[in-house]
Amino acid sequence: MTPPTALPLVKAAFDHPPTMTGHRRLVIKRRIWLIGVLFLGAALVYLGVTYPPSDIIGSVLFSLLFYPLALTVAFLALRRTRRVARILKAYPWQAYSCEYPRRSLDSPKVIMIKFTEEHTPVLRFTPFSVHLAQKQNPQPDMIWFAGDPRYGGVVSPVGGHFPVRVVPEAMGEAVPDGTPADDARAELADLVKDGRVHTT
Fold first, then answer.
1. Handedness of CA 80, 98, 133, 91 (dihedral sign)
2. Looking at the 3D structure of the chain, how many domains does it have?
3. What is the pLDDT of residue 164?
4. Cα–Cα distance between 167 and 80 in angstroms, integer?
5. Are residues 189 and 145 in the same domain?
6. Same domain, residue pair 94 and 116
């Protein structure tokens, strides 16, 4: 049996079974979230049809102010799982040392990955912050990364079982140059488009 800390011998991170399973769980979780938001919308419509507006003023205000935002966020979060899959299909897992700088008392919003001695960028979790160091992680000071150090990618605790999208927040010093092949791969993975870095 392969130790959980060993990098998989696959060409793309998505070919690693725990990563495929982790991505599938992510898609299912976000589909359930979107379905829940849609059911909430149906319930709000039912209330609006069944009761006079004066009796449900709170629900009407919620519907007008917050429901469109909730629906948009849920839809975009599900759609972003496609970008995660494209990145995982374009890059293999690589292991790097990392730190989780604290931004607030509730949760870390960023991770610092030491790609080289000179290049340790700050990458932000998107679309939501997570406690990766606590996600069945046998080595909290290590991270698996699939992507381009210049543009971000996908990270997972050691083992590849919990893929999460990260984007550049502060690139720091000594950003490495990429080859034309690196640039083409980043475009294929949807990390960049027309020279613009995708930050979602």
1. positive
2. 2
3. 93
4. 13
5. yes
6. yes
Which pLDDT tens digit goes with each residue over 68-104?
999 999 999 999 999 999 999 999 999 999 988 876 6
- For residue 102, CA distances in Å to 61, 105, 119, 131 come to 36, 7, 20, 11
Same domain, 193 and 94: yes
**Residue 164: which of 110, 107, 96 has the closest Cα?**
110
Judge whether residue 190 has pLDDT over 80. Answer: yes
DSSP secondary structure string, 59-70? HHHHHHHTHHHH
Please indicate whether residue 36 or residue 59 has the higher confidence score (pLDDT).
36
Domain containing 35 equals 13-88
Cα–Cα distance for residue pair 125/101, rounded to 1 Å: 12
Of 147-151, 187-191, 194-198, give the lowest mean pLDDT range: 194-198
Q: Residue 24: what pLDDT?
A: 96
pLDDT at residue number 2:
38
Q: Do the beta carbons of residue 191 and residue 151 sit within 8 Å?
A: yes
CB under 8 Å to 41, separation ≥6 — which residues?
A: 63, 67, 71
Do both 42 and 65 map to the same domain?
Answer: yes
Q: Among 88, 105, 127, which residue terminates a domain?
A: 88
H helices present in the chain, as ranges? 17-50, 57-65, 67-90, 180-188
Domain boundary among 88, 107, 127: 88
